[in-house]
Description:
It contains 3 helices and 24 strands. By secondary structure, it is mainly beta.
Amino acid sequence: MKAALKNLxxxxxxxxxxxxxxxxxxxxxxxxxGETTTLYLNHRASRSWLxxxxxxxxxxxxxxxxxxxxxxxxxxxxxxxxxxxWRKLAIGSPHRLLLSKNYIFxxxxxxxxxxxSDLLYLHHVVxxxxxxxxxxxxxxxxxxxxxxxxxxIEIEAGYTFGxxxxxxxxCLPDAIWILDxxxxxxxxxxxxxxxxxLDVITGDAKRAYAIYDNRGLLYAYPSLPSFEFAVFDxxxxxxxxxxxxxxxxxxxxxxxxxxxxKFQPNSTGKIIVSDGMKAALLEFSEAA
Length: 288
């Protein structure tokens, strides 16, 4: 197994509030300067507003070539922002948000799942919306006949391929789940070790790659490594944990500070690695 870095770029952690890095679209981020927040697309200012007008706008993902989708935890909507427009989408209060070519996948915090509201889709763990914001499918519609209705609470990590969502949940930590929106089908793929502490997962229809961040568990389990790397074959359902050095080596060679490393998903779930000074996408391939 080999890991490589793509789209290596500098970031200014003193001003950058949140960012997204896409293999084709590049870098998008919100930066704060005094009382102003500005959306930058590939280091070019696209739009600015007073920070006090939207103080809780904390997440941003690429949406199209010239726009991003951003959201706040405590608001029941997201916004599509470009240099020319500001469009609201009523999709609830996202915990996580991922995009495919045709859909927006939104997962919610536990309290949002357990409560009911006038927005009938909010009791779903995951909702699928069209890119125009129309409700398309709720995960509970597929969970009820499968017998998993009360087992899914929060989605821990996921990625998209085609119009599918692959995800893991801490409440059922022995599986990867594949949601097929066009076929309205939910598939369970058993894994031989728990997905607890799985931080990010990426991949395609055949294989998934995951990074475990155990740093929050070391006080109770000091023998654990800080990070672990796992590979899941989604066709054969054979999984294995591999040496994290596969990932650590290119990071050190590129000058990343390992003590400050953070992993996060981009708009489609590809893994972004950053240390507060620079960021890059992780790409995996079979060793020659």
